[in-house]
Amino acid sequence: MSKRFRVGSVIVAILFLSLAVVGQQKERSGSRGGGSIGGKGYREAAGYVVKRLGLRRNSVVVDIGAGDGWWSSKIAEKLGPKGVIHAGEVDQKKVDTIKEKWEAVPQIKPYLCPTDGTGLKENSCDLAFISKTYHHFDKDTHVDYLRHLKKVVKPSGRVVIIERHADLASGRGKKHAWQPGLLGQQAEQAGWMLLRCELIPGSDHFMATLVKPEAFAEKLSRRLTRRAQKVI
Ligand SMILES: C[S@@+](CC[C@H](N)C(=O)[O-])C[C@H]1O[C@@H](n2cnc3c(N)ncnc32)[C@H](O)[C@@H]1O
Q: Which atom of ligand 1 is nearest to the CA of 116?
């Protein structure tokens, strides 16, 4: 084998290996959520998301699967000093992390929650916020969980669910994603109305807002009556 041929073979092998490593890294970053399409993109749009939550100052929120409490901290800014965010986690280590990390934000109340519910009282929350946790709920328990939230959330309250859109996920990322259509069906089965479902700008995550149809219909009818009275 000539020296030139051997050098050429080595270069080709190095190029091949580099491409394989880059491919693997791309795949991993997509599934972990580090890529620009979605990765942490949904966090970069936090201002947009928090605005769309429709929160008032002093509201009570439950952040289900709060993780490191990052979303709880963003929501706390909106609620003001008298608001409350129950930051629920099934992992004690994460509860401890939230306590430590957000010690200076007293509105955040970290707690160990059960896997099949919030453990909170009926009619106690204005919003149930579930970011990238819905797909973690035990198989075939999603409708029951949403039924539970119907009790915990006040009549005029909402549920907001953020998940990676299953059609936009690839590789292992598919396991950490959800179909908006399926969520809509499950919400309806549990007695919620899907008010809106939208892609979060700049990410491959969607945000679904659920309301109680009875309370929403009443509010809408009052608003329409007021408008009609103004016209007359
Ligand atoms: C992917 S992380 C999302 C963290 C955070 N919400 C976010 O968007 O960055 C999912 C979290 O949900 C928690 N989790 C899983 N199942 C849960 C359940 N049934 N109830 C509450 N938390 C749960 C996990 O411990 C984990 O911290």
A: 19
CB hemisphere CA count around 163 (13 angstroms): 25
* 10 CA to centre of ligand 1 in angstroms: 47
Please state, rounded to an integer, the average pLDDT across all residues of the chain: 86
Bridge partners, residue 73, by sequence: none
Q: Which one, of 189, 164, 192, lies nearest residue 178 by Cα?
A: 164
Closest CA to 87 of 102, 72, 75: 72
Per CATH, which fold does 3-231 belong to?
Answer: Rossmann fold (3.40.50)
> Which band of pLDDT confidence, cut at 50, 70 and 90, is reported for residue 35?
very low
Question: Tokens for 20?
Answer: 């394989």
Distances (CA, A) of 189 to 26, 71, 128, 148: 38, 28, 18, 12
